[in-house]
User: What shape does this take?
Amino acid sequence: MEADSPKGLRPETLAVAFGYDPADALGAVKPPVYLTSTFIYPSAQHAKDVHEAFFEGTGPLAETGGGHIYSRLGHPGLDILESRLAAIDGAEAAAAFSSGMAAHSSIALTFVQPGDSVLHGRPIYGGVDMLYGSVMPRFGTQVETYQDGTDPDGVRAAARAAMAKGPLALIVAETPANPTAAIVDLDLMVAVADEVGRETGRRPLVVVDNTLLGPFSQRPIEHGVDLCMTSLTKYCAGHSDLLAGGVSGKFELIHSLRTLRTTWGNHLDPFTAWLVVRSLESASVRIERAMANARSVAEFLRDHPKVAGVTYLGFLKEGTPQRAVYDRQCKGAGSTFSFHLHGGEAESFRMLDNLKLLKLAVSLGGSETLICHSATTTHYAVPREGRLAGGITDGTMRLSVGLEHVDDLIADLAQALEAV
Ligand SMILES: Cc1ncc(COP(=O)(O)O)c(C=O)c1O
Assistant: This one.
């Protein structure tokens, strides 16, 4: 049996019940929602011991923590979600935040010092681009980017350029990248971090955004990355009804994130944590169905005369470096991809305005199929040349394929394409 977790259980099994003991809640098969802001202590000494354990990691309650203090510092729903997420990701520990961007910002503010440099790929989610391109430079962070995350020479040259600007603190990779499905070689990122560490005595942390494939189809921690970040808003929660973010990694790193989270105040609240725990149980099944639907939709679009191309991981050509990385790193092609119409904005808008079932919205990973015109929505703020360099034309649309019957999805796209 493949041993993916401390108990030898697979991620799909861990997602169903790990991290919760019904004996803690009167035998309830599902965890209660602990809607409380603060916690009562049995004695003044116990209160002191709990604080010592939390802030110093010492004292009689150092091993167990001894209980909770105040929900911003931690609460039972967070404990359940974090232990489950860590187990699913195959990590020592995890921390949950109020959104994916809260998780990204916390990583940056915790691990980057003024004057440090950060290396990240392009394209990357716009919020992360803004975090490193506009926000962190206000605190003295220098940023460098690599273009092709499968090209060892290019990535090493970009790392050198970053180091020339300041000590390299983070190597950030989003793979596959949003919206073009550009793939990044995680083993290469870890190798480059190790080389920088040997050369300078300070090894940068490798941070991977695993949102697009999620924990069941890509397992970054097994490739040696330091922090695996996931926007739980997307496939893990899976119903487009909440915002949440998670980070998994070594206990020491997660402890630093959790400690500063008490200052940022961007922890995940009890009810949303409960919703994510509930949704994680069925995430692998939902993702499997969405991926099967996505393949059929991608094949339909690829063969359609009005479609110029489809950027879908499942179509990566044999013999390319991207395909080699995909085969080594991914267990599925996901259900978010782009297609490119012949024509531009006018043709795209005609198609979108004629859709009856697919919903015109940004975001991805929900039960419903979402579609958007990249240049005028998710990449509105990116200059045209930058968009074109990233493979986003005026006819590019991003699809997040959901759980509807695939024939209905294809029929809706077919009738909308008639209007183009
Ligand atoms: C790849 C990726 N990372 C991070 C985020 C940010 O997540 P959230 O919206 O939960 O803050 C998104 C949001 O779309 C995303 O697509």
Notes: Residues 11-279 form a domain with the Aspartate Aminotransferase; domain 2 fold (CATH 3.40.640.10). The longest strand covers residues 168-174. The chain has two domains: 11-279, 283-418. Residues 99-101, 125, 127, 174, 178, 209, 211-212, 231, 233, 243, 245, 363 surround pyridoxal-5'-phosphate (CB under 6 Å).
